[in-house]
Protein backbone atom coordinates (compact mmCIF):
# COMPACT_ATOMS: atom_id res chain seq x y z
CA UNK A 1 0.00 0.00 0.00
CA UNK A 2 1.03 3.55 -0.64
CA UNK A 3 0.23 6.61 1.50
CA UNK A 4 1.56 10.12 1.24
CA UNK A 5 4.24 11.18 3.74
CA UNK A 6 1.67 13.62 5.12
CA UNK A 7 -0.84 10.83 5.75
CA UNK A 8 1.85 8.72 7.37
CA UNK A 9 2.83 11.54 9.72
CA UNK A 10 -0.82 12.15 10.55
CA UNK A 11 -1.41 8.47 11.27
CA UNK A 12 1.16 8.89 14.04
CA UNK A 13 -0.99 11.70 15.42
CA UNK A 14 -3.98 9.35 15.32
CA UNK A 15 -1.95 6.69 17.12
CA UNK A 16 -1.01 9.26 19.77
CA UNK A 17 -4.67 10.24 20.23
CA UNK A 18 -5.62 6.58 20.62
CA UNK A 19 -2.85 5.89 23.11
CA UNK A 20 -3.89 8.90 25.21
CA UNK A 21 -7.51 7.75 25.04
CA UNK A 22 -6.56 4.26 26.19
CA UNK A 23 -4.50 5.67 29.05
CA UNK A 24 -7.31 7.98 30.16
CA UNK A 25 -9.89 5.18 30.02
CA UNK A 26 -7.57 3.02 32.11
CA UNK A 27 -7.18 5.79 34.68
CA UNK A 28 -10.94 6.28 34.70
CA UNK A 29 -11.62 2.59 35.24
CA UNK A 30 -8.97 2.21 37.93
CA UNK A 31 -9.72 5.29 40.01
CA UNK A 32 -8.94 4.66 43.67
CA UNK A 33 -12.43 5.97 44.45
CA UNK A 34 -14.00 2.96 42.70
CA UNK A 35 -12.41 0.51 45.15
CA UNK A 36 -12.97 2.80 48.12
CA UNK A 37 -16.63 3.17 47.19
CA UNK A 38 -17.07 -0.59 46.87
CA UNK A 39 -15.51 -1.13 50.30
CA UNK A 40 -17.51 1.65 51.97
CA UNK A 41 -20.75 0.48 50.35
CA UNK A 42 -20.18 -3.10 51.53
CA UNK A 43 -19.49 -1.89 55.07
CA UNK A 44 -22.55 0.37 54.95
CA UNK A 45 -24.78 -2.47 53.75
CA UNK A 46 -23.44 -4.81 56.44
CA UNK A 47 -24.04 -2.14 59.09
CA UNK A 48 -27.57 -1.56 57.77
CA UNK A 49 -28.28 -5.30 57.94
CA UNK A 50 -27.02 -5.42 61.53
CA UNK A 51 -29.20 -2.43 62.45
CA UNK A 52 -32.28 -4.01 60.88
CA UNK A 53 -31.55 -7.26 62.71
CA UNK A 54 -31.18 -5.34 65.99
CA UNK A 55 -34.47 -3.52 65.39
CA UNK A 56 -36.19 -6.85 64.72
CA UNK A 57 -34.64 -8.24 67.89
CA UNK A 58 -35.86 -5.16 69.78
CA UNK A 59 -39.42 -5.75 68.61
CA UNK A 60 -39.26 -9.36 69.79
CA UNK A 61 -37.83 -8.39 73.18
CA UNK A 62 -40.45 -5.67 73.63
CA UNK A 63 -43.14 -8.28 73.10
CA UNK A 64 -41.36 -10.41 75.67
CA UNK A 65 -41.45 -7.46 78.08
CA UNK A 66 -45.18 -7.02 77.52
CA UNK A 67 -45.71 -10.69 78.37
CA UNK A 68 -43.56 -10.33 81.51
CA UNK A 69 -45.49 -7.21 82.57
CA UNK A 70 -48.78 -9.01 81.99
CA UNK A 71 -47.58 -11.94 84.14
CA UNK A 72 -46.57 -9.57 86.94
CA UNK A 73 -49.90 -7.74 86.67
CA UNK A 74 -51.75 -11.04 86.92
CA UNK A 75 -49.81 -12.04 90.03
CA UNK A 76 -50.44 -8.61 91.62
CA UNK A 77 -54.12 -8.98 90.91
CA UNK A 78 -54.24 -12.36 92.61
CA UNK A 79 -52.25 -11.07 95.62
CA UNK A 80 -54.61 -8.10 95.95
CA UNK A 81 -57.62 -10.41 95.79
CA UNK A 82 -56.21 -12.77 98.42
CA UNK A 83 -55.16 -9.94 100.74
CA UNK A 84 -58.64 -8.45 100.48
CA UNK A 85 -60.16 -11.75 101.59
CA UNK A 86 -57.63 -12.03 104.40
CA UNK A 87 -58.44 -8.55 105.62
CA UNK A 88 -62.20 -9.08 105.37
CA UNK A 89 -62.25 -11.57 108.26
CA UNK A 90 -64.95 -13.62 106.56
CA UNK A 91 -62.79 -16.64 105.81
CA UNK A 92 -62.55 -19.76 107.99
CA UNK A 93 -59.27 -20.53 109.78
CA UNK A 94 -58.46 -23.18 107.19
CA UNK A 95 -59.19 -20.77 104.35
CA UNK A 96 -57.08 -18.12 106.07
CA UNK A 97 -54.18 -20.54 106.27
CA UNK A 98 -54.56 -21.42 102.59
CA UNK A 99 -54.78 -17.76 101.62
CA UNK A 100 -51.66 -16.87 103.62
CA UNK A 101 -49.76 -19.73 101.97
CA UNK A 102 -50.92 -18.65 98.52
CA UNK A 103 -50.00 -15.01 99.18
CA UNK A 104 -46.52 -16.13 100.23
CA UNK A 105 -46.15 -18.31 97.12
CA UNK A 106 -47.43 -15.54 94.89
CA UNK A 107 -44.98 -13.12 96.49
CA UNK A 108 -42.09 -15.41 95.58
CA UNK A 109 -43.43 -15.80 92.06
CA UNK A 110 -43.87 -12.02 91.78
CA UNK A 111 -40.23 -11.47 92.76
CA UNK A 112 -39.12 -14.00 90.14
CA UNK A 113 -41.23 -12.37 87.43
CA UNK A 114 -40.04 -8.89 88.35
CA UNK A 115 -36.45 -10.16 88.05
CA UNK A 116 -37.27 -11.48 84.58
CA UNK A 117 -38.91 -8.14 83.76
CA UNK A 118 -35.79 -6.26 84.89
CA UNK A 119 -33.53 -8.50 82.80
CA UNK A 120 -35.71 -7.92 79.72
CA UNK A 121 -35.59 -4.14 80.28
CA UNK A 122 -31.81 -4.29 80.52
CA UNK A 123 -31.71 -6.21 77.25
CA UNK A 124 -33.88 -3.51 75.65
CA UNK A 125 -31.47 -0.83 76.85
CA UNK A 126 -28.51 -2.78 75.42
CA UNK A 127 -30.24 -3.28 72.06
CA UNK A 128 -31.22 0.41 71.89
CA UNK A 129 -27.60 1.35 72.53
CA UNK A 130 -26.49 -1.02 69.79
CA UNK A 131 -29.03 0.43 67.34
CA UNK A 132 -27.82 3.94 68.13
CA UNK A 133 -24.19 2.96 67.52
CA UNK A 134 -25.06 1.19 64.26
CA UNK A 135 -27.18 4.13 63.08
CA UNK A 136 -24.30 6.53 63.76
CA UNK A 137 -21.88 4.23 61.94
CA UNK A 138 -24.30 3.94 59.04
CA UNK A 139 -24.54 7.75 58.85
CA UNK A 140 -20.75 7.94 58.89
CA UNK A 141 -20.52 5.53 55.97
CA UNK A 142 -23.21 7.48 54.10
CA UNK A 143 -21.16 10.67 54.47
CA UNK A 144 -18.02 8.86 53.34
CA UNK A 145 -19.81 7.42 50.31
CA UNK A 146 -21.22 10.85 49.39
CA UNK A 147 -17.73 12.37 49.58
CA UNK A 148 -16.24 9.57 47.48
CA UNK A 149 -19.01 9.94 44.89
CA UNK A 150 -18.22 13.66 44.55
CA UNK A 151 -14.50 12.94 44.22
CA UNK A 152 -15.17 10.23 41.65
CA UNK A 153 -17.53 12.39 39.59
CA UNK A 154 -15.07 15.30 39.62
CA UNK A 155 -12.24 13.05 38.45
CA UNK A 156 -14.40 11.46 35.75
CA UNK A 157 -15.56 14.88 34.57
CA UNK A 158 -11.92 15.89 34.09
CA UNK A 159 -11.19 12.68 32.17
CA UNK A 160 -14.32 13.09 30.03
CA UNK A 161 -13.44 16.66 29.14
CA UNK A 162 -9.99 15.55 28.04
CA UNK A 163 -11.42 12.58 26.12
CA UNK A 164 -13.86 14.87 24.29
CA UNK A 165 -11.03 17.21 23.35
CA UNK A 166 -8.92 14.31 22.04
CA UNK A 167 -11.91 12.97 20.10
CA UNK A 168 -12.47 16.31 18.39
CA UNK A 169 -8.81 16.58 17.39
CA UNK A 170 -8.79 12.98 16.19
CA UNK A 171 -11.89 13.50 14.04
CA UNK A 172 -10.35 16.58 12.45
CA UNK A 173 -7.15 14.67 11.65
CA UNK A 174 -9.00 11.60 10.38
CA UNK A 175 -10.92 13.70 7.83
CA UNK A 176 -7.70 14.48 5.97
CA UNK A 177 -6.28 10.92 5.83
CA UNK A 178 -6.88 8.43 3.04
CA UNK A 179 -9.78 6.12 4.07
CA UNK A 180 -7.93 3.03 2.83
CA UNK A 181 -4.83 3.90 4.84
CA UNK A 182 -6.91 4.63 7.92
CA UNK A 183 -8.74 1.31 7.52
CA UNK A 184 -5.38 -0.50 7.48
CA UNK A 185 -4.36 1.31 10.66
CA UNK A 186 -7.63 0.42 12.41
CA UNK A 187 -7.37 -3.22 11.35
CA UNK A 188 -3.80 -3.50 12.71
CA UNK A 189 -4.71 -1.66 15.92
CA UNK A 190 -7.63 -4.00 16.62
CA UNK A 191 -5.35 -7.05 16.56
CA UNK A 192 -2.18 -5.55 18.02
CA UNK A 193 -3.07 -4.50 21.57
CA UNK A 194 -4.13 -1.07 20.40
CA UNK A 195 -0.93 -0.19 18.53
CA UNK A 196 -1.55 0.47 14.85
CA UNK A 197 1.34 2.74 13.93
CA UNK A 198 4.69 3.77 15.35
CA UNK A 199 7.67 5.86 14.38
CA UNK A 200 11.02 4.48 13.25
CA UNK A 201 13.46 6.13 15.63
CA UNK A 202 17.22 5.43 15.74
CA UNK A 203 16.80 2.09 14.01
CA UNK A 204 14.06 0.87 16.39
CA UNK A 205 10.30 0.52 16.19
CA UNK A 206 8.72 2.85 18.72
CA UNK A 207 5.77 0.47 18.97
CA UNK A 208 7.46 -2.72 20.18
CA UNK A 209 10.77 -0.94 21.03
CA UNK A 210 12.81 -3.59 19.24
CA UNK A 211 15.79 -2.83 17.02
CA UNK A 212 15.52 -3.49 13.31
CA UNK A 213 18.42 -5.26 11.60
CA UNK A 214 20.65 -3.36 9.20
CA UNK A 215 19.48 -5.24 6.11
CA UNK A 216 15.83 -4.41 6.78
CA UNK A 217 16.71 -0.80 7.52
CA UNK A 218 18.56 -0.58 4.18
CA UNK A 219 15.55 -2.08 2.38
CA UNK A 220 13.23 0.47 3.99
CA UNK A 221 15.47 3.40 3.15
CA UNK A 222 15.51 2.38 -0.52
CA UNK A 223 11.72 2.42 -0.73
CA UNK A 224 9.80 5.43 -1.99
CA UNK A 225 8.56 7.88 0.65
CA UNK A 226 4.93 6.99 -0.02
CA UNK A 227 5.50 3.25 0.41
CA UNK A 228 3.89 1.97 3.61
CA UNK A 229 6.23 -0.26 5.60
CA UNK A 230 5.45 -2.54 8.53
CA UNK A 231 7.50 -3.60 11.53
CA UNK A 232 8.52 -7.26 11.15
CA UNK A 233 8.06 -7.85 14.89
CA UNK A 234 4.77 -6.15 15.89
CA UNK A 235 3.41 -5.65 12.32
CA UNK A 236 2.36 -2.06 13.00
CA UNK A 237 2.72 0.65 10.36
CA UNK A 238 6.26 1.98 10.64
CA UNK A 239 6.55 5.66 9.80
CA UNK A 240 9.96 6.79 8.55
CA UNK A 241 11.50 10.23 8.50
CA UNK A 242 10.04 11.43 11.80
Structure in words:
InterPro entries: CT398_CC_hairpin (IPR056003), Oxidative_Scav/Glycosyltrans (IPR052376). The protein is mainly α and 242 residues long. It has 2 domains: 3-23 and 177-237, no CATH class; 30-173, Orthogonal Bundle (Helix Hairpins), CATH 1.10.287. It is 76% helix and 5% strand. Strands 2-1-4-3 form a 4-stranded mixed β-sheet. It is rod-shaped.
Present the secondary structure layout.
Layout: H1 5-29, H2 32-88, H3 93-174, H4 179-190, E1 197-201, E2 204-205, H5 214-222, E3 229-230, E4 237-239
Parallel strand pairs: 1-4
Antiparallel strand pairs: 1-2, 3-4
Pfam family, one: CT398_CC
InterPro entries: CT398_CC_hairpin (IPR056003), Oxidative_Scav/Glycosyltrans (IPR052376)
Domain CT398-like coiled coil hairpin: 15-191
List the domain count as a whole number: 2
pLDDT under 50 segments (min length 5)? none
Label the overall shape.
Answer: rod-shaped
Specify the CATH architecture of the largest domain. Answer: Orthogonal Bundle
- Give the spatial strand order of the biggest sheet: 2-1-4-3
CATH class annotation of the largest domain: Mainly Alpha
Structural classification? mainly alpha
Major sheet: size, sense and barrel closure?
A: 4 strands, mixed
> How large, in whole angstroms, is the Cα Rg?
42 Å
Number of helices: 5
Number of strands: 4
Mean pLDDT: 92
Helix content: over 70%
Helix-strand string: HHHHEEHEE
Please report which band the strand proportion falls in: under 5%, 5-15%, 15-25%, 25-35%, 35-45% or over 45%: under 5%
Spatial separation of the terminal alpha carbons: 19 Å
CATH topology of the largest domain: Helix Hairpins
